[in-house]
Structure formats: structure tokens, C-alpha cells
Amino acid sequence: MARHNRIKILLHSFAGRITIGVILIHALLIPFLFGVVFVIEAGYKQQFIEYVRHDAAVVAEQLSEEQTEGGFLHHLNDAALSGGVLVAQLLTDDGTLFNSTVLDKPIPPAAFQEDFRFGEHGDSVYYISLPIGTADGKSATVQMGFDEAPTQEQIQKAYHRVEILAVSFITLSLLPVAFLIPQLTHPLRKLRDTAQKIANGEATEQLYVKSSIYEISDLADDLESMRHELVNRSQAIIAREGRISAIMNNVVDGIITIDDNGTIESMNPAALQIFGYEQADISGINFDDLLNDSSLLTINANNHIASSSGKMPITSIMTHETVGWRKDGNTLPIEIAISELTRSEGRLFIAIVRDITERKRSEEELKALHDDLERRVIKRTKELASLNQELEHQALHDALTELPNRLLLQDRMHQALLSAQREHHQLALLITDLDRFKEINDTLGHHYGDLVLQEVSARMRTALRGSDTIARLGGDEFAVLLPYIESADDAVMAAHKLVASMEKPIVLEDHSFHVGISVGIALYPDHGKDGSTLMRHADVAMYVAKRSTSGYALYDHLEDQHSVSRLAMVGELRHAIEHKELMLFYQPKIDLKEGLITGVEALVRWNHPQRGLLSPDEFIPLAEHTGLIRPLTFFVLDETLHQASVWKKNDLNLKIAVNLSAHHLQDEQLANKVESAMRQWDVPPELLEFEITESAIMANPLRAMNTLTQLSKMGIGLSIDDFGTGYSSLIYLKQLPVDEIKIDKSFVIDMLENNEDLVIVRSTIDLAHNMGRQVVAEGVESEEVLNLLMELGCDMAQGYYISRPITANIITQWLQQTQWPLKRSHA
Amino acid sequence: MKYQHAIATLFILLIGTPSLAANDNSRHLVLVTDSTTGITSLSTSEVHKLFLGLPIEKGGRSLEAAINHSDPFLYEIFLQKIVHMSSISFDRHLLSNVIQIGGLRPQIFNNTQSLINALKQKPGTVSVLWENDVKTRSDLTIIGEIWHGTIE
Question: Would you say the CATH fold of A397-555 matches that of A251-355?
Fold first, then answer.
């Protein structure tokens, strides 16, 4: 049996196959060799037959020419001696047999078997007989036997040689085969060993097979490449398996693999922990054992999860919540996702299990929080809605008066205009402005101003219908929308009512205020078809109303032109300030006791390109109203200091007074700015004086006090201008660091005719002197007035009688001509 | 005893059968020509020359040889008894004669019937046939016997 196996192995081995191949190749050659020998054999036989037949024919020819018995024997003996002839005899018709005496082996005629083929009778003798006619006319038969043995020996020898040759050839052929086979099989065996090593996982050793045979060396290279690739892939697989294993071992979710029968194949540590199992416990466990209700989650043949909620296809996307069964008998809520993997040994189900105990708890807490939050949201929503309403109200109403603001007015006007357009009726927009409110606000403060506004709004509400909209536009400006009027008279009536409502004084905390109101009326559609036009036109009418005695006015397009020019003037004034187009005039002041010029008051004039030279009354209020008063004042201050600097260099030390508005007194940086300007022009403070009105100081007395104190400490002179025309407080006046008081010209001009004015002037002079202040009388336009003032003890005077306001260029000439010489004590 | 008689009978039959078969296999190879040729016999030398392709005239008629190649044994007897050479030498000899002397090479027939037809169609043609094939035919004449014997 073992031998049979060895043969089988040999037959199926590379060496065996090569050997068999060589033998088979030569086995094909051997018949060829023997075929050659067969041809040779045929040749030998043919040659033998040729010889026999020819030789027999020759003998027969010779015998046919003989007549004697001796001749017969002679030829027969010659034939016998020629070699190869075993029998040579002549048989005559009469039965006489002449036999060769040399051979002496007669063959009886009956035993003579003639051959026609070589070796025909197997007796190694070729018998041949030929009839002859003898010379005596008788017939006879020559019988000869030729020896086939030499020819047979030659044939045998040829066969023997071929056999030797074949054996030698095979042997010699197998020798190189025997040499070549190891050359082939050795590297192949090595390749096989390496392949076996690779198959056994021992692929780390590099394959090196030395062979001069390309196929083998290529195979070795390919195998080495394969081994190298296998090593790389193995390492990659190991690394990947390591990563997968690490993931499996560290993933938070439990991962369970289940076979087609529902038997668990593996559980990762997380799954073991979830279900309380050890790795050794899971053998043979069915997946259903992990579930509280085995019927709840079953993998059936149709790849569906049968659950309480119906059949669902297995998919990794879908998750199912159920109850898990721990080894210790406790249950826990779990979430399962199952996916299917098809492999060669059958389907594999992968269940991803997650312990959702904490999540469930969190969900319950979250639900409680959600409910609580929802309650809070509802509550907060209500609050926000309320707040929103309040904000909306605030957004649309004035906080002080609770009246609709400009925004709400615009909305209502828009609605009213739509209605008026649709229903073809008129509406009216009234713009009101309180008279003297600014003074109240400036003198008594915003508190009283606010109270006044509240009272005014209440009176307006009382005076008008409930359907009318009263809105506060800002400051002391109000608007009234009359959404439906029959005619302009209705609007006039409403305006009249508003004016009438303000006739009674407003009494607030022991103060009684008389507040007037100016009402401008614009009608739809006569005065405008949109809100903004009506507003603008009502505003124009309101300014007209301020100048009227009735207190109200309907819009007139002619008046509108004035309004437009007023707006244009603002721009022109700004341009004039920026481009220094304003001119400064200086009006001298004299010391009445010494009769000397003490200084000048700087007065600004505007040389308007179209309207000519404008007095301060024509543009200063506009500047104050538009905020241009600040740049205007600093322009005047800068020009004044420049002029003072020029005069100083010309040894003309004139003290220059500059008017300050209430706005400047609120400027905390005023003193610094003035100081900087003086430093710039190198003008000493003794040459500068500021004139301030009482109202400007009383607007914010505390801050005015600070500003004036700073200016006074700098050495700048301070004067109360237009004294007696506005609200003043003697207490504050006493505390102010002012040097002089200027009596308003309205008192001075008529003091000769009007005794009251004279009383005021005298009282003011006495009061000022009592407070240690000097007095300047403005508006001195005659010598009589001047003399009276001197009698009253007035310190200084200023007016047309002394000099009109003149430019800086003229004032030097004037100083040379005037009767009042320059006081040289300054500077 | 009974068996001994049967064995003896079988032995006799076996011994006797070859002799009967020998009688049955007895053959005579004869020279044949058409009956109209008018030839009754040819000498050994004439036969030899005729089949070697040499010109032979007999009774004023030029004779031609037709070689019977239908039976290998017949042909070997023909080679040995008439032309005294092997088949290769005979072929070479005929070819040599044609080249040296001219004329046609004796026609060779591989079929007995074709040979007989040729003999009849062309009087003066001589060939070699088994006697059995011609002895019943009156249109052919046996003009000599070349060999007789048994075929094993």
C-alpha cells in the first residue's frame, strides 16, 4: 500500500511527470527505431531472396546446358561451394537425383518444401526449385536450399543493436533529466515550503529563491510580493481587528451577535455589563433569554422584529425600546437596533443594545421640567403680552402726558386720511405751541415744565371730543387730529376751544402761570393730501398764529413762503458762520463819572447777500433755536480776541464785552475754551468781559454759577445784560460773581417820560450799588438821559448818543474825534 | 471405453483433415492467353523474356505480358519461377528495360477479373493465373504450368 502511494506521489510529482514525459517521448522514438530495423530486415530478406532466386536461376541455366552426369555434379558442387547453399540437387523426370557431393545431404523429393518468402517454413532454409530443360531434351528440376541463418543473424544483430541503442538513449536521456529535476524541484520545493509557511501564518521571513529559470524566479518574486502583501494586509487586518476590538471593548453600547437560530455568538463588555453576564456565561444563551418578554422581540424567518407595536423590518436605523432581563433577574429598559449581515455560514444578526435607564429617568425629569417650563412659558407669555401691550403703549404714547406720540399720530392720521379719501370728507390737523413755556422751563426747571405740560394736555383733552386725537410731538408742541369735520369752521372752533382752555392761569405749588397757546390749522384736502404736508403746513400756520392776537391761524400758502425762507436762512447762517461772513460792530461804553471810554460791546451783524445787514434780533433767536448759537458765539469770541490783540499791539487797550447765551453757561468746558482762545491771541483777561442775561443764568443757576465762577477766577469781567426784563432771583444775583449790571434799554429810553421806568432805573442803580456792583445803562440816546443817569449815580452808559455800533476800522478814528477820551488805566 | 472411442475418432478426424485440406488447397499456377491467340506453349526462356519486357513473337504474333498482382502469393511464385528475382529487382528491371529498350512496361492488374478481361480484349497477351480461375473458361487457353503445390 505504501509502495502504491509512493508511486502515486511520484506520478503526481513534478519530477515524476518530467520523467514520464521523457520516457514517453522516447517511447515514441523506440518504435521508430524498430521501424527502421524492420525496414532493414525487409531489405535483408529482399536481398536474400534476390540472391537465392538469381543464384538458383544461374545454376539452373548452367545445368540446362549440361548433358552428362559429371557435368551435373560439377555444377552442383560449384553451387554448393559458393557459400550459403545447403542443398543443391537435380531431379530428373525419371526420378534420378543428382546430389552435390560436397554437401552430401540429399533431400527426398517428398520432403522438399519450396519457399516463396524468407523463413516461410521456419526451418532456416530457403528451398527453391526451378525446372530446366536439359540438353538431351529431357526436363528436370533443380532443387536448392539456401541457409537463412546468416541473414537471420544479421537481422537479429540489427534488432539487438537497436535495443541497445534504445536503452542507451533512454538512459542517457534520463541522466540530464535526473540532473535537471533537482534544479527544478529544489526551488519549487522551497517555494512550496514558503507557501506552507505563509499558509501557517509564518510569513515574516523573506523569500529568497535563486534560480536561473525565469518562470521559477518570476514565481518566486510573485510569491514574495504575495507574501509581502499578505504581511502588510495581515498587519492591517491585525491593526483593524485591534481597532475593532478596542471599539467593541470600549464602546458604550452593547453589541451582541446572534446566529440564524437566535443563539448568541458574542457579547462585548458593554453588553455583558448591561445584562450582568460574564464572558463564560454566554455560551448557548438565546437572544430571547435577554428579553423580558420573549414574544416581544423575535427574529423570524422574514427578517422582521415582531413587537408589541407590530412587525418592523430589521434595520440598523430603526431602534426599538423594550425591557431587558439581567442575569440576576432584574429588568432594565433597553433600546435595541438590529441589523443583518449575510455571510457564508448563514445570516448574522447584530444587535446594538443600549441601557436607557438613565435616559428614561432623564426623560421623566425632562418631562417634569418641560411641564414646569411650559407653565412658566405660558405665564411669561402672558406677562410678555402684557408687557408688550405696555411697551406698545409706551412706544405709541408720551410718557409724561399719556397722550399719543408722533408715531401714533402718524398712524391715526394715515387711517384718517384713508377714510377721508374714501368717504370724501375733510379732516384737520392742528399744531400747537405753548407761549412762554420755555421761560417757565428755564426759570423754574423741568419739574414745573412737566407739570405745566400735564395740565395743558388735560385741558386740551377736556376741550376736545373724544374722537379727536391729541398727540404730544415733543417739548411744548402738541398736535390735534380732527378726523372728521364738516368745514374749516369746525377746525377753527376746536382751535378756539384750545386757546380758551388756556386762558385760566395754571396754578402749581403756589405758583401761578399764565400759558398761552398758538394753534396752526391745516385742512385736508385743501392744505395737503398727505400727513407730512399737513404737518408742515399746520406748523407754518402755528408760527403765524404766534404773531396773531387770536392765538390760532389757518394755513395760508403766502405765509408758507416765510416759513421756507426761515428754513433757508438757517442754512445761510451756518454758511456765514463757517465762512466768517458775519461782521462785528463795537459800541463804546463810557465811564460817567470820569467821562472816559472804558470799553466796547461787541455786537454781531449779518451782512446778508439778499436781505442786507441784519440785526442780531433777526437771526440770534434762529441761531439759539437751531443750536447755531454755539459756533456763532465762538466766532464772535475769536474775532473779538483777534481784534483786541490787534488793538493791544497798537497800544489801544479796549475792554471788549461779548454776549453769552444760556447754552454757553451749561457748557462745562467754556472756561477752558476761552482760556485757550485768549492764549492763542495773547489777550489778557482784563480786556475781556462776558454779558449774560438773567434768564440765561436762571435756566440752570447752579451750573451757571460754576461757569461764571471759573470765568471770574480767570480775571474776566462779568455783566448781567438786559437786567429787569426777565425773571430773576435777587438771592442768586447776590451770589453771582458779576461785576456790573446793565439796565435794559427799554427802561432807559423812556425814563424821562415814564416815571415807572425812572423808578426802576433808580432802584436798580441803588440795588446794584448796595450789592457792590457797578451799573451800566443801555439805550442812552440823548444828553438829557445821560445827565439824568449821572445824577442817579449810574456808573457807565452805552447808547446811540455816545456812539452807534461801529466797525473796528472806524473806532480808531472815532476815538480821535470823540469828546470822551480813552481811559488809559487798563492794560 | 466409450470415451476412448470418441477420442480416437476425433484424433482420426484431426489427422485426416489436413490431408483433405491439402487436397482442397492444391493449386496450379498456369500461363494463360486468349484462345484466339493461337499459342499452345512457350518455352521457359520465352516466358522469362516475355515477362522481363523483352519483345517475343510467336506464330507471327507479337506477345505482351500482363502481370497479375491480385494475389501476393501468386506474385511471389511468379517472381521466383519466371523472372527469378525479387519484386524490387523486377520493378527496377522492368523500368530499366523500358528506359533502355523502349516500349511499354507490362501492364499490372490487381484484380483477376480485370486481368481476364484484358486477356480477352487483347489477344497475344500472356499472363499468370490460378488454374481454378481459368480452367472452366473456353475463351482462355492455358499454355503452360509454372508451378503446382499446396497453399498452407
Answer: no
Task: Check pLDDT > 80 for residue A707.
Answer: yes
> What is the distance in angstroms between the Cα of B68 and the nearest Cα belonging to chain A?
16
Residue range of the domain that includes B68: 28-150
Put simply, the answer to whether B84 touches A57 (Cβ < 8 Å) is: yes
- Write out the CATH class of domain A251-355: alpha beta
Mean confidence (pLDDT) of chain A:
84
Q: How do residues A89-138 score in pLDDT, each as one tens digit?
A: 888 888 888 887 776 667 777 778 888 888 888 888 899 988 887 666 67
Q: A14-165 has which fold?
A: Beta-Lactamase (3.30.450)
Q: Which amino acid is it at A47?
A: Q
What pLDDT is stored for residue A666 in this prediction? 78
User: For residue A324, what are the β-bridge partners?
Assistant: A291, A332
**Structural domain count, chain B:** 1
Contacts of A143 in chain B (CB under 8 A): none
User: What is the distance between the alpha carbons of residues A182 and A656, in angstroms, rounded to a whole number?
Assistant: 133
The CATH number, out of the four listed (3.30.70.920, 3.30.70.270, 3.40.50.800, 3.30.450.40), of the domain defined by the range A397-555: 3.30.70.270
8 Å CB contact of A46 and B88: yes
Q: Where are the domains of chain A?
A: 14-165, 207-241, 251-355, 397-555, 584-817
Contact list in B for residue A132 (CB cut-off 8 A) is 44
CB within 8 Å: B73 and A114: no
Give me the sign of the Cα torsion angle A524, A529, A535, A541. Answer: negative
Instruction: Say whether pLDDT at A482 is over 90.
Output: yes
Segment B6-29, tens digit of pLDDT: 444 444 444 444 444 444 578 899
Contacts of A502 (CB under 8 A, 6+ apart): A434, A456, A459, A515, A516, A517
Q: Measure A130 CA to nearest chain B CA, in Å.
A: 6
Cβ atoms A156, A100 nearer than 8 A: no
Q: H or E element: which one contains A141?
A: strand A139-147
The values of phi and psi at residue A795, to 5°, are: -80, -45
CB pairs under 8 A between A and B: 32
The answer on pLDDT for A450 being more than 80 is: yes
Domain membership of residue B17 (yes or no) is no
The domain covering A584-817 belongs, at the CATH homologous superfamily level, to: EAL domain (3.20.20.450)
Tens-place pLDDT, residues A761-810: 998 899 889 888 999 999 999 999 999 999 999 999 999 999 999 999 89
- The residue in chain B having the minimum alpha-carbon distance to the alpha carbon of residue A42 is B88
